[in-house]
């Protein structure tokens, strides 16, 4: 298991379940540079560290761990695909893409139920989630930031 965090400046923090040479459980912590953490994200970071520590302390046979990681990777890819599709119109086109649907009038208006100013859900700690602007959809922090009209033009 690996916990990933990226700060607003793009610096990353990864905490991975690991072990010392003698098999003693450990956490491997890797960063690209010093990290700035928003105060409202402290609980998310602590939860990620706690979950990763719990995973490191649980014995995992090597083959089973690798198979589980592959299944988790596949699951994560499928989940990312679902999130990336949230802004599609009923004809399957992303907001702003050419669309042949008569309701869209030539350019997709996207999902009428998920707009840039609407909360689409909440994090584990009650932080609102928003559909970010198209160029920011692959940035996890953008899902926690209310987009401005400027972001979506």
Task: Tell me the series of helices and strands, N- to C-terminal.
Answer: EEEHHEEEE
Shape: elongated
Largest sheet: 3 strands, antiparallel
| Distance between the ends | 38 Å
Biggest sheet, strands in spatial order? 1-2-3
Q: Low-confidence spans: pLDDT under 50, at least 5 residues?
A: none
Structural class by helix and strand composition: alpha+beta
* Structure annotation, total helices: 2
Determine Rg (CA atoms, Å): 19 Å
SS elements, strand count: 7
The share of residues in helices is 25-40%
How big a fraction of the residues is strand? Answer: 15-25%
Q: Could you tell me the mean pLDDT? A: 76
What does this structure look like?
The chain has 153 residues and is of the alpha+beta class. Helix content is 25%, strand content 20%. The chain is built from two helices and seven strands; from the N terminus they run βββααββββ. The protein has helices at residues 42-57, 62-84; strands spanning 2-6, 12-19, 25-31, 98-99, 106-107, 119-122, 128-130. The protein has a three-stranded antiparallel β-sheet with strand order 1-2-3, with helices on one face. The chain has a two-stranded antiparallel sheet with strand order 4-5. A two-stranded antiparallel ribbon has the order 6-7. Strand 2 and strand 3 form a beta hairpin. It is elongated. The model has no long low-confidence stretch (mean pLDDT 76).
């Amino acid at each position: 298991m690996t916990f990933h965090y990226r700060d607003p400046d793009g610096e990353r923090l990864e905490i991975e379940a690991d072990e010392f040479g003698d098999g003693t459980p450990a956490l491997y912590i890797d960063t690209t540079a010093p990290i700035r953490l928003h105060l409202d994200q402290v609980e998310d970071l602590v939860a990620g560290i706690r979950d990763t520590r719990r995973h490191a302390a649980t014995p995992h046979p090597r083959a089973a761990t690798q198979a589980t990681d592959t299944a988790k990777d596949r699951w994560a890819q499928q989940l990312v695909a679902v999130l990336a599709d949230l802004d599609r119109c009923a004809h399957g086109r992303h907001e702003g893409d050419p669309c042949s649907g008569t309701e869209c009038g030539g350019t997709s208006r996207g999902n009428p139920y998920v707009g840039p100013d609407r909360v689409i859900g909440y994090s584990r700690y009650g932080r609102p989630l928003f559909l970010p602007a198209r160029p920011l959809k692959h940035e996890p922090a953008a899902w926690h930031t209310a987009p401005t009209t400027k972001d979506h033009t």
